[in-house]
Write a structure and sequence with these properties.
- Keywords: Membrane, Transmembrane, Transmembrane helix.
- By secondary structure, the chain is of the alpha+beta class.
- Among the domains are: about 130 residues, Cadherins (Immunoglobulin-like); about 110 residues, no CATH class; about 40 residues, no CATH class.
- It is built from 6 helices and 18 strands.
- Strands 1, 2, 4, 7 and 8 form a 5-stranded mixed sheet that branches. A 3-stranded antiparallel sheet has the order 3-6-5, with no helix packed on it. Strands 11-15-14 form a 3-stranded mixed sheet, with no helix packed on it.
- A hairpin with a 2-residue loop joins β16 and β17.
Length: about 400
Amino acid sequence: MVELSAKFKLPSGVDDVEYPAGPQEIGVNAGPFTRLAQSNIALNSSTAAYKRVRFRMALPEYLQSPFNVTPAGGILYLTEWGPQALATLTSTAGVLIEWYQSDGGLVEGVHWISVDVVPPRGGCPVQGPAQLRGWALCHERSRNTTCLNTCGLAVHPSRNGKCQWRKGSNMAGILTTNYSTCTSDVDHCPDGVCDPLEDINRHICPQDCTRTVIMGTSNPKTLRGIYSGVGVCTCDTVGKCHCGPPELPPPQRQRKTTSLPTTSPTNPTSLNNTRGPHVRAAGNERCDASCMVMLITSGVCITLLIAGSIFYFSSRSGWIKKKQTVIESSAYSTDALLPLPSTEVNQQQTEPQPVIEMDPKWEIPRSRIIIESCLGEGEFGKVLKASAKDLPSHPGRKSEIF
């Protein structure tokens, strides 16, 4: 194994670029975006060297190696298709990285990094899913046990594909920078810096690169990442992060016993002590995002159902009343065609009317007349069509009159 490293004189004011010495190990079951090595300027974005120096692969060329390097910072990592190619590599591989001036392209130095591909350990499958979206995401896990058993994306080489759990202070209801979270690389995520590798894909470390934090605060300088949070912080598939109380494990079933509980005479208050760490108050289960969506959806549906029922019954009762009014008005609408009673006419007239003598032969009770329709009307009155029963000239018969 040959260790090759060469440096050239850099412009004044620019620090030397260095990489860790010795070979770097990676398991054959490592996931995409696994970090292998990085230069000494990778996390110092404010330095002159970070701004003026760029990195690239010299040997082998890009697309011919499962490894690549970020142009800024010079972070060596496993590519998206790298896990499929690791199984075909020999036990020892390597890459030659060179760095140059960003403004002129003049090469300033090179460094050869040896990579030892070791057998799989930890239970994660070799090669894994062929597509990137098939890999599990560490930042979605909210519990320690599920986190440590997850084969995730961009996991540190020493973890053999398994996610890591960063245990925080878990102070209830208090914002803290020491929040708990499941991460792919506890050494670099979260560290308060969205470095060039983490900026390639939002699923590598949204704890450092997210722009949306719920129940937490972002970095006041960069407005990215989770600066402080409450309890446990997780992130979803679109890169939004949420902090909240830790998720409690499901209650364990207790065996039925017939013996009565006993108390120690030296500790008479043990039965009433509910503040110990071993006691968990009921009803403190955490309602996650899916639970909140379900509750909101149920409330909206119930509200719409109640409002629809009220509208239906109120409109139905109004329709029934309207229908009854139409029926009643149609039954008595022909009465409006008759002239006003004589008492009302006499009240409206100011001059005495001549007395008209009625022929008893043509007088019949009004109850025998049924007004059917109006045939016409003009300035001198209306012509009505009606039917009458038991006219003096036609007793016992129904006759039409006009």
